């Protein structure tokens, strides 16, 4: 039975087993490789996407259970039109290897949507599920504060 | 054998190079500060535009700088491109970069710096000259390797000369065209400017400049630099925050199939037999392929491939390693009874000094196996078409990967085109070529089908090339507040011997410097100072983990120095300084800096500090870690780093690497260990091989000094002091010594 999902505003009908995790649907079936695989067990956050604005681990979300529209990093901002969070990431030169960063950014997006001016404790609580083996946490924290300030001015 | 023209752009480039590149490159090689005069061939031959040397392609307005080192997060592409751009006079926004092909032209001349049996800090002028001659050997061997924190050191002159030579060649062409003297011309933002205001863009001059001998201009004085010495926007940043940066696991090709592996869980073991049917029954699985020491499953998507790989029924033939981690440590300890491999330091008479001393110490330390745990699991994409293999993967040694892939596919290295992608972390793991090997085998089994291989995290974790487990036996003595004897013996498997055998098929003998680095080469003035290395006869696959030998040896050295300071009744930082001040000034200065930054000796109520130091990869680095007890568990609250890599080319990148190295080292020290039970790795995924996260990472301050007369690396030196600084802080807070890692075995840590 085909499953329908809407990703970055485009509707897709996919003939795949319903238990296929959204992560692999995005990466291998739809070619949206900005969403990364790190662990497959919801322990690293590399695969984080937004479903109806909520941060979700795509590796642990079966295709059949996707309940609303999906936004991936590709739909969040582009090199030509960076989202404010991405611009803050660039100002703070936050990425090193970069592999965890799409997930970090979308996790931060969900945080700021809920709490436009998070303090350090709120950032810790929201971001600690997202692993970064390069240790970019200090720059990410600074970028989130900066983005929050920039977005509240806008 | 025939070589396919289709899909092998670089194959064509290599052949055309002989025609196009020869003239230009003879000039490139004339930048001869190198001992070996024979020119390196320019591997570049762009389809449009002109190449002036192996580092530069000018095509209209586009300035492409070749950055032939692995970008694994350390920012090297940005710094390398800036070296060329600085002398070339182009705007930073104009610069594009490309990793370039595997080529001997991109040999790493600094790699052999570490080959001399001498402590870096104590290298005399003649020794540095000799190391440069050895660098020439690296040129002859064509070692294009990213490792040992050497990339910037190696490129510092070479790539600036490439920029300067190209600039002067462009000016010479402009002078002829305009009928003026070269000396009257200036360059700016990718253009040659004439006194009358005429502007000639480089793109209009490049084709002709590429056919001329390249002048050998002097390099600019650093006081004139516009790009170097500043924190530049990284060239890879926008791609990495928009998900458009391409990793080995992101390659998209028509007809692409995805692959997963099921590898033998017993190191050194193989497949005795298997039943493919349960895998083939998984929807989407197309092929199951025997790889001898494992099985590959090829499917429509990676999920189906991983499900298939898990479903396989396999009989494994075990290797002959000890079953358990305890038995492995017993084997490591046996090495102390064998002949020693090295005695890299042997000053004075430690036996006598220890037996004469009223206060002597004898202690044993242990460090566990560690995994690199790169964020991106190992991955590679491969396509075999008409006898030609095209390969996309992140790697730290393109030529080794090219050769390994060729062997796996049964073709010659010339029949392999390798595209080096971004890497989701390297830390030494991607110098190994196992993933290239398997991808090439799968592609060779399915000609015409592009195969994208991604290791599952579980397979990645079970098949690491580990930081070796090690045991150190330390003896020492103090008198009148000073260390009078320091005698270290360390036993572990040899990374160098194992890796050289794996990479070249040749056995290497002789003393292994890397095995004892971080122990024998530290700038302490101790009259009776001896360091001996013993190689464990244990074939657990080991590899180059960030900072290599320094990572465990700094733990041994600096924890023991702390114990000696305690025995001498001295402050640990003042004790270190007292032994370092006359031995190596830049090292003493980083200690002084970190003392000042951390307000050493005055931690807030309820907190404690620990200090450690390591001189590694040419960069003395000192760290102070502050620890607190919160609700019964320990928490790392703050950390300070002072380092001296000599001249700093990009302070933002240096700072990021220092923070990164510290966090990597602390993560390992707190929870990192790979253990074995029943012959298999016990850790499977991040839940049992975790790292510091946003809520457990300390507040970090970094200070970069520039007193060091020699340029050092920055990618690794932040890691070695982290574990001992933390362990010493634990002692300061709790009164309990840590002599075995990870700390979580002994203490409850908030992670
Ligand atoms: S891949 Fe989904 S959380 Fe790690
Ligand atoms: S930037 Fe490399 S894992 Fe986060």
Automatic annotation (TrEMBL), chain A:
Domain 2Fe-2S ferredoxin-type: 3-76
Record GO terms (molecular function): 2 iron, 2 sulfur cluster binding; metal ion binding; oxidoreductase activity
Keywords: 2Fe-2S, Iron, Iron-sulfur, Metal-binding, Oxidoreductase
Pfam families linked to this entry: Fer2 (PF00111), Fer2_2 (PF01799)
Protein origin, superkingdom: Bacteria
PANTHER family (alphabetical): BLR6218 PROTEIN, OXIDOREDUCTASE WITH IRON-SULFUR SUBUNIT
Protein name according to UniProt: (2Fe-2S)-binding protein
Automatic annotation (TrEMBL), chain B:
InterPro entries in the record: Ald_Oxase/Xan_DH_a/b, AldOxase/xan_DH_MoCoBD1, AldOxase/xan_DH_MoCoBD2, AldOxase/xan_DH_Mopterin-bd_sf, N-heterocyclic_Hydroxylase, OxRdtase_Mopterin-bd_su_IorB, TAT_signal
Domain of life assignment: Bacteria
Annotated coiled-coil segments of the chain: none
Pfam families membership: MoCoBD_1 (PF02738), MoCoBD_2 (PF20256)
Domain Aldehyde oxidase/xanthine dehydrogenase a/b hammerhead: 242-320
Signal peptide range in chain numbering: none
GO MF entries: oxidoreductase activity
Name of the molecule in the record: Xanthine dehydrogenase family protein molybdopterin-binding subunit
